[in-house]
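FIELD: query
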Amino acid sequence: MQLNTLDLINDAGSSVVASQDRIGANSHTLWAVDGATPASGGELNTSKDVYWLVDTVSRMIQSSQREEDLAVLLSRIAGVVADELDPRQVHRNNPPSCSVLIARVNGDRLSWVCLGDISLAVQDGHSHRLTVVENDVMQRREVEVIAARADLDDARFATFLTKRRESDMNTPHGYWVLAAKRDIARHARYGQISISPESTVVAATDGFARGVQLFHLFSWQDMLDKPDEVSLTDRCRDIRDIECRPDPRNRFPRIKISDDAAAVLVRVV
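FIELD: result
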């Protein structure tokens, strides 16, 4: 079996800053990468910023061979990041990092590996069973951070975010993302999902997944039941519409008013 790409979107959450998400699929693999920090600036040959990171990760996934084990692939990527990332960045409070998900056809299963909060949803072509992979830990952390926001001014909140990130990121009691850590692959989540011909699969960064998880505009089932009915562009437009509306009752609490949104939708054939 192989994958046929039905739709793909990568929409920046800002009109002045390029998207830090990367998304893609080929005949055997789909992937999503979500840059977690602002760009540091500087020339790419002297300063490895978040754009260098997400581009490097995406290129390595895209060029990998179908036979390569996902744990081996992620370890190889982590090694390159650890070798190449500017050591001065590693010790800063805001080093480049990213969430990453890789899913690959492996016989009658879709093998996947994930660091961070990329969402994956699969609907089997025969049983129509829906399987969803999400990161509850990172979602709970965001709720806690949002709750703290109400009691802090901008400066104190920025300090709070930095300290919270330092205490949570890549720690046993927090969450794991791809950064300058060579052994990060052993902390990733791994799994396999049964697939059959006509199975449909979607992978999405958190900016797109908020359409399901926060705004409740649509469900993963909606997307996978009738993948040709509503385009990812139209769904993203609906997300942007809500993001732009006033929210005086704080019905949709979030750290970023608008976030980069990327998703890829494929069918197994």
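FIELD: remark
Strands lie at 3-11, 21-25, 29-35, 98-106, 109-115, 119-123, 130-133, 189-194, 200-204, 261-268.
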